[in-house]
Amino acid sequence: MIRLAPLVLALAALPAFAADYVQAPGSTLTFATKYQGEVFTGRFPQFATKLTFDPASLATSKLDVTIPLAGAATGDKDRDENLRGSDFFNIAKVPQARYVASKFRALGGNRYAADGQLTLHGVSKPVTLTFTWTPGAAPVLAGQATVKRLDFGVGVGDWADTSIIPNEVAVSTKVVFAPAKAGAAK
Predict the structure, then answer these.
(1) φ, ψ at 69 (rounded to 5°)
(2) Are 68 and 46 in contact (CB under 8 A)?
(3) Is there a contact between 73 and 43 (Cβ–Cβ < 8 Å)?
(4) Start-to-end Cα distance in the chain
(5) Can you tell me the mean pLDDT for 119-147?
(6) What is the mean pLDDT of residues 101-107?
(7) Within 13 Å of residue 18, how many CA atoms lie on the same side as its CB?
(8) What is the pLDDT of residues 83-96, one digit of tens each?
(9) How confident is the model at residue 185, as a pLDDT?
C-alpha cells in the first residue's frame, strides 16, 4: 500500500482536463429589445454550441456558438423579414453569427463569465457572457449578455435611431449539454 502513495501523488499532480460537451435538445437562445418603447422578444431556434469546460480548470475552457440568422423569429412576420434584410442581419451576405470564447472567470458560487468575440454582420467585437453552470448527467449553462447592435452595424439608416430601437439588446441562453464523442468539441 505504501508503494502506491508516490504513484497516487504523481497522478494527482497531473493537470485537470476539461470535459467536452455538445448542445442537446431543450436548449434556447433568445433576445429582447424594444421598438418604439414596446418590448419584443425573439429566438434563434437553430443555433449550435460546443463547450469544453471544467470549473476547476477554467484556463482550458472554450465555448463556440454558431447562430444561423435566417431562423430569427419574433412572432411578427414583417419584423422577421426586416431582421433578415440588409438594414439588420443582411443574411444574403452574412448568414450566420458566431461567438467564440476562450477566457473564463469564476464569479463565485456556480457563476462564471466567458470573455469572447461575437462576429455579427461581418464585424467582430468583444462580448462577455455571464452564466451559471449546473453540473450533472445533462449539465446546463444559463447565461446572459448585452450586445450593442450599432457596434455591429445592425440597424442602419432610420433604424440607427436609438429612440426607435435601443442600442442594447439583451441576449439570454439556456444550453443543455451532452458529453461530446471523442474529438467532437475541439
Answers:
(1) -80, -20
(2) yes
(3) yes
(4) 38
(5) 97
(6) 98
(7) 21
(8) 999 999 999 999 99
(9) 45
The proportion of the chain whose per-residue pLDDT surpasses 70, expressed as a percent, equals 88
Is the distance from CB of 156 to CB of 123 less than 8 angstroms? no
Residues in the chain: 186
Q: What are phi and psi of 71, to 5 degrees?
A: -85, 0
Q: Report the amino acid identity of residue 12.
A: A
The single-letter code of the amino acid at 143 is: G
Right CATH for 17-179 from 3.30.160.20, 3.30.1850.10, 2.40.128.110, 3.30.470.20: 2.40.128.110
In a 3-state reduction of DSSP, which class is residue 139? coil
Amino acid at 44: F
Contact 146, 152 (CB under 8 A): no
C-alpha 95/C-alpha 89 separation (Å) is 8
Whether residue 175 contacts residue 23, with contact meaning beta carbons closer than 8 Å, is answered with: yes
Whether the CB-CB separation of 138 and 178 falls below 8 Å is answered with yes
Report the C-alpha gap between 65 and 2 in whole angstroms: 48
What is the residue extent of each domain of the chain? Answer: 17-179
Closest CA to 120 of 145, 144, 93: 93
Dist CA 69 CA 89 (whole Å): 7
Q: What is the pLDDT of residue 184?
A: 47
Residue 21: name the closest of 174, 140, 118 by CA: 140
